[in-house]
């Protein structure tokens, strides 16, 4: 059972990280997991019509943050201490991005998670290859 459910996590993010909504919306959470969707719009595109790296990194970051909070509870000062992302292929033009995040390890001071980004509304469920993969480390305040 997650420490925070979907509604509690959405309420927490709205109060403590309202700017996070520009990076996507939470669709589901579980113990140490989170799925987010970014409705790609013109603000997320770079020249040539590709989704920008910063937009994908923001989605990945917030998705892992949400997955972490399902394990540690409402800790607003947990912060990213490392983000490594591999861009694997160009996302589909005009398609949503889906982030599928999970925590790999959660300790007292650090949480390590990974996230796969998929392009297209049902891409993650349809077995489509990811467009990016990221690993993140979060520092958890004492």
UniProtKB/TrEMBL annotation:
Residues 48-120 form the Thioesterase domain. The keyword Hydrolase applies. It holds the Pfam family 4HBT. Coiled coil: none annotated. Keywords: Hydrolase. CDD domains: PaaI_thioesterase. InterPro entries: HotDog_dom_sf (IPR029069), PAAI_dom (IPR003736), Thioestr_dom (IPR006683). It comes from the Bacteria. This is PaaI family thioesterase. The lineage of its organism: Bacteria, Pseudomonadati, Pseudomonadota, Gammaproteobacteria, Oceanospirillales.
């Amino acid at each position: 059972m997650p420490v925070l459910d979907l509604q509690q996590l959405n309420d927490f993010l709205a109060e403590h990280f309202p700017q996070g909504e520009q990076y996507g919306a939470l669709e589901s959470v579980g113990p140490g997991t989170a799925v987010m969707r970014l409705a790609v719009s013109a603000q997320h595109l770079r020249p040539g019509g590709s989704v920008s790296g910063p937009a994908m990194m923001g989605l990945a970051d917030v998705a892992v943050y949400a997955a972490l909070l399902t394990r540690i509870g409402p800790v607003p000062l947990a912060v990213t201490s490392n983000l490594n992302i591999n861009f694997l292929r160009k996302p589909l033009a005009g398609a949503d991005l889906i982030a599928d995040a999970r925590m790999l390890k959660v300790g007292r001071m650090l949480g390590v998670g990974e996230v796969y980004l998929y392009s297209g509304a049902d891409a993650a469920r349809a077995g489509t290859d990811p467009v990016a993969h990221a690993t993140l480390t979060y520092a958890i305040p004492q």
